[in-house]
């Protein structure tokens, strides 16, 4: 998928809370392995922190993504929060929207135990293939917090006086990445952040981007997200 594939969901967010939505066309693996994709997102986020109000009439308020986009959104938010420049580390998001994200590239338990025939969207084999394409270098440690946000030192961040933004985590029960969402949201809460977790019974990976009515429970999630955006904006 590319940035244009997100247009329908971004339009929903935009209409719900009168926002301007920006989609990042970051470089993709395997042609551009780590750290290309994350660095593109960091550059865009830093530019928006400095220029969004001047260019778009309002500061950066929310960030989010689905699957790999959830992974990159979490990395980018933590990159800003832990930045040595207070211009970025002091920046306050209104909220994060993290849907079925990949938060541990070394694999959480459901990656090994999730077995469906046929596989629903992704499975352990496809996750291994994607991770290898993304990292490539044997020197890349999948438990490096700059690669897997689950291993970020949240407690040191909050001990330094910084705080995590409110975050919505969603995932379906028929998703190989379910534990990623459960584990990441738990660490978010343990570090004092507001973490709202929505688990959708029977939903596969990517459910929120499916055509309306295809996956039961999707409309309820979209309604909740609309409410969240309006409350936090």
TrEMBL record:
Residues 4-208 form the Alpha/beta hydrolase fold-3 domain. It comes from the Eukaryota. The keyword Hydrolase applies. Keywords: Hydrolase. Transmembrane segments: none annotated. One of its GO terms (molecular function) is hydrolase activity. This is Alpha/beta hydrolase fold-3 domain-containing protein. It comes from Coccidioides immitis RMSCC 3703.
